[in-house]
Amino acid sequence: MDVELLLRVYPFFLKAALVTLELSVLSILLGLGCGALGAGARLSRHRVLRFLGAAYVSVFRGTPALIQLFILYFGGPQIGIQLDAFTAGFIGLGINIGAYMTETMRGAIIAVDKGQNEAARTLGLSRGQAMRRVVLPQAMRLMIRPLGVNINAQIKGTSLVAAISVVELTYTAQRYIASTYKPFEMFLLAGVIYLAIISATGLGLSWLDRRAAIR
Amino acid sequence: MLNERPVIEVRHARKSYGAVEVLRDVSLKVRKGEIVAIIGPSGSGKSTLLRAINNLDPLTGGEVWLEDTQVNEALPPRRYEAHINRVRQDIGMVFQHFNLFPHLSVRGNITLAPMMLKGIGRKEADELAEQQLARVGLSDRVDFMPSQLSGGQKQRVAIARALAMKPKVMLFDEATSALDPELVEEVNLVMKQLAEEHMTMIIVTHEMGFAQDVCDRVLFMDRGLVVEQGPPDVVFRQPRHERTRAFLRKHLQLRD
């Protein structure tokens, strides 16, 4: 193990980790938005919306995220969508994780006891009011843990955008391998940084989950 | 008094799930201040009838009236939604499993609907919560969370929550069936007190003793029909129908 090399390159890896973090945050935010819309559509009274929600989920969960990224980044210009690699990366990843988050959110909403909705409705609350004030506050607490699983997957999933040459952690590791011929050290270093990000996120999510628990 | 409209009137209610008929032509009138118990074996349709009154389980035929408003009036979906939300404010309901909102305090449970629907402010809503809690004997629990209450206390809060909307009628769907035996009495006491205040009530229950003590009229239902109805003394002491007798025999034995 070439420790000296590691000490020399780690600042560059940390810089690249910032890009990974940015990608993670942006794609997760986009994913949460897509998930909320998707879950709303899947639980809608309107058949067309339900169909669109289901189609979104089955298409984006049914194809590799890498293929989705390739279509967006390489195929996009052919149909007039011209995005730089970073933008294509976080949009592609965000829409992809949004399909998983759709199912997570829908599951949490359905998991709230249906007596809750009934009680709210019998008091005279409308569908929307019952959803906002009674069902969603309970569903949000139920979805923290499973969304944590999605988020964890997404942070690791950002490594895919190396394939469309976004200079993030994985891509940086590959680049240093090309000049140093030390794949063991370089990938190990990248892995350790991913682990640190994931662990910190996990701690944050557990804290949130504990805080949100209904006493 | 002579020509006063019933508070609740059900006319020729029918309900089927596919080929299964749960209600077959059930009619019912409940006058102001009257307390009606609905008894019968499980699957007899009594809960379905109760849940049809506020349209939680819509009928497939027949009408439900709250005074001079038809609860299940045929309206286009959007207008029906507004209509039923208004009607439900006047029909309180208490469930077997309480269905308190676990993320809200006792106060929040009681004030949520009045604040959202009656346009009253925080202060007035708090006073309302205190009044209603006093009515069910839980004034000291206003800042508790539901999880900190016993089953009996939860059900009393659920009753206070329904009462806070100042309903014209209260529906009780086996309100004590999920309670430990020693907690049944405190809920029964609250219901008795409401009876003394002449609250109009329709009570689906398995407790024959309570029905006998508190109610003005008892309906015995079986297989989607009202088999027999009358004052409790008559229905319990001299039932006319064999099915009623068989049901009561079983239940009175169980009690001893």
From TrEMBL, chain A:
GO terms for molecular function: transmembrane transporter activity. Residues 13-205 form the ABC transmembrane type-1 domain. It is a multi-pass membrane protein. Coiled coil: none annotated. The keyword Membrane applies. GO terms for biological process: amino acid transport. It is found in: Cell inner membrane; Cell membrane. It holds the Pfam family BPD_transp_1. Keywords: Amino-acid transport, Cell membrane, Membrane, Transmembrane, Transmembrane helix, Transport. Its main location: membrane. One of its GO terms (cellular component) is ATP-binding cassette (ABC) transporter complex. InterPro entries: AA_ABC_transptr_permease_3TM, ArtM/GltK/GlnP/TcyL/YhdX-like, MetI-like, MetI-like_sf. The chain crosses the membrane at residues 12-39, 51-73, 79-100, 147-167, 187-208. PANTHER family: L-CYSTINE TRANSPORT SYSTEM PERMEASE PROTEIN TCYL (PTHR30614:SF0), MEMBRANE COMPONENT OF AMINO ACID ABC TRANSPORTER (PTHR30614). Belongs to the binding-protein-dependent transport system permease family. HisMQ subfamily. This is Polar amino acid transport system permease protein. It comes from Ancylobacter tetraedralis.
From TrEMBL, chain B:
SMART domains: AAA. One of its GO terms (molecular function) is ATP binding. Pfam families: ABC_tran. It is a peripheral membrane protein. It is found in: Cell membrane. Belongs to the ABC transporter superfamily. It comes from the Bacteria. It comes from Ancylobacter tetraedralis. GO terms for cellular component: plasma membrane. This is Polar amino acid transport system ATP-binding protein. Its main location: membrane. InterPro entries: AAA+_ATPase, ABC_ATPase_HisP-typ, ABC_transporter-like_ATP-bd, ABC_transporter-like_CS, MetN_ABC_transporter-like, P-loop_NTPase. Keywords: Amino-acid transport, ATP-binding, Cell membrane, Membrane, Nucleotide-binding, Transport.
